[in-house]
Description:
The structure is a single chain. The mean pLDDT is 94. The protein is elongated. The strands form three sheets. Strands 10-9-8-11-12-13 form a six-stranded parallel sheet, sandwiched between helices. A four-stranded parallel sheet has the order 4-5-6-7, covered by helices on one side. The chain has a three-stranded mixed sheet with strand order 1-3-2, with no helix packed on it. It has 382 residues and is of the alpha/beta class. It has 15 helices and 13 strands. The relative contact order is 0.11. Helix content is 45%, strand content 14%. Helix 2 (43-53) packs across helix 3 (55-67). It has two domains: 2-179 and 364-380, Rossmann fold, CATH 3.40.50.2000; 197-362, Glycogen Phosphorylase B (Rossmann fold, 3-Layer(aba) Sandwich).
Amino acid sequence: MRRELRAFKQIGFNPDLYSIWKGHSMWEGKQIYRFKFSRLLSLFFWIPYWSWRKPKAFKEILNELLKKPCPSLQNWNETFLALGFALVEASNFKVKNYSLIHGIWATMPATATLALSKLIDVPFSMGAHAYDVFRTGGDWLLELKFRNAVFIRTSSQSTVRRIEQVGVSSGKIKLIRRGLTSWPVRENFLMIDHSRLELLSVGRLVEKKGYIHQLQIAASLLEESIPFRLRIVGSGPLKKFLLKEINRLGLIENVIFLGSKSQKETREVYLNSDVFIFTGIIAKDGDRDGIPNVIPEAMSAGCLILASSHAGASEAFIDDVSGFSLNPKDTQKWVSILKEFWEEPGSFQLMRKRSVKHTRQAFDVLQTAHSFHSVIEQNLDL
């Protein structure tokens, strides 16, 4: 989001920014309107006021909430915080005279923009990404938001298909990739360390990332006597479990958790790795990745890309041209490619160079920002 806002500024588009949930009041010289939770006390006034002014909006949203149980406690909290935000801030938004209000995700932000739209009769648009629409079947008010939004921005074809399955017309869905900037420069495409493979994975330590499959790949590499080091950037609830698995599989010398890193630090790790591995799966609650930012980031840094064929991960590249799309459960296929890379790294140089070129063409943030801004302008003319 920060990258996209910087690109918006470059093309002369400067939307007002609102944060429902905390954060800083200033960002790179631009004000962020932060919601003060104390304002929720004024709901004692605003609920009767808006229920009298907009009874149909109240009834429509309430009926939608009663249609099905809330997917999760987190979604319950986000939904009612967003509705509270809309009720107490609607009069302020009306004074601003906005032409369009955009919620960047389909969860809390889009709930707020839906409610604001109903209360002050301003059109709204929304982002909808994999987490928003797949986890626990999607957000509580997701279908109502889809029906009322003037357009829905998403970043992967797999998420487009999911939104269409809900009954949204293809014309309303806008597929606009997430853009990258500050392209790293790899000096050469030879092995980083000729004594071992340098493997890298980046992401939260959660089920949908499929880390258990990475450890199985690592164990097979060990059996094949291929020297390697797998570094994992990220933190999360599965760390203890994964550490136990590393010990059980005898990988303590080969797999290293680096914890969370800044964007700058992560960029350096990309440049000091040969191969990037992403083994994303569909979690038990339905959650999955669309196109994780880490894949185009690794591509832009010149890593050889081995990514899961599940969900939208492999949409970032062209299979067998700028990366490999593989079933996370087919351990031997991953190991076979890594073994070939270890024995003949030079034969993969062209693929890695194609990967860099493809990323800079498909994920340039100025290009994606122009596309997004164009969609916004089109809908302001309606």
